[in-house]
Specification:
The radius of gyration is 13 Å and the shape is globular. It has no helices and 11 strands. Strand 7 and strand 8 form a beta hairpin. By secondary structure, it is mainly β. Strands 2, 4, 5, 6, 9, 10 and 11 form a 7-stranded mixed β-sheet that branches. The N and C termini lie far apart (40 Å).
């Protein structure tokens, strides 16, 4: 079955940029709807972005529009989340996720990475 491993988190100053990676193994990401979520302690997981398996469209939550970009490199079986103009409010654990069913409209994906911490602070 599909396994996901994130990397690229860390400490960044406000206004800075960071790129998260999520490597897939055991199956090809091309067969899945893929995306990113984030979670702050004490709150539920929040959708960040998603690539639909049905039509290839990308979806972003309002806070991510214009600042975050989701992408995929099929040759590396890896998805990315490029984040720019980061704000302290973006501090969270970021998770990549995937499902062979399209979850971009609101369902919960089946496969999750372990999470990577992003801290935006001066």
């Amino acid at each position: 079955h599909l396994q996901l491993v994130e990397s690229g988190g860390g400490l960044v100053q406000p206004g800075g940029s960071l790129r998260l990676s999520c490597a897939g193994s055991g199956s090809t990401l091309d067969d899945y709807a893929i995306g990113w979520f984030r979670q702050v302690p004490g709150k539920g997981r929040e959708r960040v972005s998603c690539i639909s398996i049905s039509d290839g469209r990308t979806y972003y939550s309002d806070f991510a529009k214009g600042r975050f970009t989701i992408s995929k490199d099929s040759s590396k079986n890896t998805m990315y989340l490029q984040m720019s103009s980061l704000e302290p409010e973006d501090t969270a654990v970021y998770y990549c996720a995937a499902d062979y069913l399209d979850y971009c409209s609101g369902d919960v994906p089946r496969y999750w990475g372990q999470g990577t911490q992003v801290t935006v602070s001066s």
